[in-house]
């Protein structure tokens, strides 16, 4: 009997190949032929699953977004466990900005390439670059509210608690900025991690 092919698995194989090509040569160098070669399949098979380069690039972007969402979900679920403080759950999630391993570096590099291209390429929808961070920011707000309920947040000099919505936006912005700084060599992963810890030290009591 002919071997059955899992179409979702094959699509994932092809989108993973695009991400690897983009991480190595740059998103602007991606072609259907290069993606096929990286995936070890024929160009015809790539075209069977993705009618053109635009649809392939959007599928890879959706894959990257799902990776980020999954990572965040794991960190959020850890925070719900009373044995882990919200601060440590947030720090574990933000550690991806340190770009200290190949997977996180590839993710940051390709995601940034997509975001840059979306600013000038009408073929790429810019909305995913807003929806993704908006979702994370909203969930950061929920986590910080959880921390406030657990008395984990440090009070400010005037005796009040930090504004969680503003703090969530600040944490996310810091995370993105540090990721870019590491990618271009301005900061080392260790320096980025130290900056994140310094900020969280001032926000949390523990």
Automatic annotation (TrEMBL):
One Pfam family in the UniProt entry: TetR_N
Listed InterPro entries: BetI_C (IPR039538), Homeodomain-like_sf (IPR009057), HTH-type_TetR-like_transc_reg (IPR050109), HTH_TetR (IPR001647), Tet_transcr_reg_TetR-rel_C_sf (IPR036271)
Keyword field contains Repressor: yes
DNA-binding region: 31-50
HTH tetR-type domain ranges (all copies): 8-68
Keywords, in A-Z order: DNA-binding, Repressor, Transcription, Transcription regulation
Domain of life: Bacteria
PANTHER family xrefs: HTH-TYPE TRANSCRIPTIONAL REGULATOR BETI (PTHR30055:SF234), HTH-TYPE TRANSCRIPTIONAL REGULATOR RUTR (PTHR30055)
UniProt protein name: TetR family transcriptional regulator C-terminal domain-containing protein
Species assigned in the record: Janibacter alittae
């Amino acid at each position: 009997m002919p071997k059955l092919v899992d179409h979702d698995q094959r699509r994932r194989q092809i989108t993973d190949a695009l991400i690897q090509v983009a991480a190595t040569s740059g998103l602007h160098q991606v072609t259907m032929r290069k993606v096929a070669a990286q995936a070890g399949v024929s160009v015809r098979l790539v075209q069977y699953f993705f009618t053109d380069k635009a649809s392939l690039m959007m599928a890879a972007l959706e894959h990257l977004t799902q990776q980020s969402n999954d990572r965040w979900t794991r960190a959020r679920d850890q925070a719900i466990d009373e044995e882990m403080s919200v601060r440590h759950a947030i720090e574990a999630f933000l550690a991806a900005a340190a770009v200290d391993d190949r997977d996180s570096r590839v993710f940051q590099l390709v995601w940034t390439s997509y975001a840059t291209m979306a600013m000038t390429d009408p073929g790429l929808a810019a909305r995913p670059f807003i929806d993704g961070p908006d979702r994370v920011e909203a969930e950061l707000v929920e986590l910080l509210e959880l921390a406030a309920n657990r008395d984990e947040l440090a009070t400010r000099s005037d005796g009040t608690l930090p504004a969680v919505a503003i703090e969530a936006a600040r944490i996310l912005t810091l995370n993105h900025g540090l990721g870019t700084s590491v990618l271009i060599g301005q900061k080392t992963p260790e320096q980025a991690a130290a900056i994140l810890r310094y900020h969280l030290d001032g926000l949390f009591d523990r």
